[in-house]
Amino acid sequence: MTSILTWGLLVFLSFLPPLIYTIWIRNTERCHRQQWFSIFLCFLWGATIAVIAALILEIVLEMPLQYSFSSGDIRPFLLAIVIAPVVEEFTKPLALRLRSVKKQLSELEDGLIYGAVAGLGFSATENLLYGYSFLSEGFVIFLALMTMRSFGGCLLHASATALTGYGFGKTVMKQSSFLGVLPYFLLAIFLHGSYNFLVSYEFFGVLSGLVLGFLVVILAITLIRKKIRTLDENNC
Known about the structure:
The protein is an all-alpha fold. The chain has one domain (4-235). It is 80% helix and 0% strand. The model has no long low-confidence stretch (mean pLDDT 90).
């Protein structure tokens, strides 16, 4: 039976890094920083409703694959590279449609920030779910895998959902068609699917795939924070 101390450590390791990243992303903006209440709502949405909705949709969308493909190898591949990125990048940025969040979208960088925070909330709960399964691997392996998820997984979700958030924020501010979100949504799916491919399959080798995956998300979050700073400076 998992002890209270183990559960406490699991929750701590799962949520602390995303919370730190949330503060880091929010404070990238120097002028007109976002209200903590709206930040909390986005994080909470990502950690709860987005996760539950994504799990349900992934189960529903995976069902036809059981009858369409006789090979068991293709189903996990499609789930990781196609279904999960599409579903998760759909449910996470819906946080920006919350009334208290939507009314805060007054600057272009706001969508980037709120999208990233919703992604970080999602990654926190995902860390918890994966971390529970890692416990059976032994404490050292558990810590190593949690460290990798706390870095790569968190930055992936923050970066990918920030892209859709940016597109959504633009449509709200310009009062344009929501079709304008589509290019950013597709880019988020591509980033998410590419990362999953690199870290999940030994096409380049295990270590090389991890390194490439981490480099991708480092580049993505660096560009997103640079964009936030540039837009913020224009509004100061």
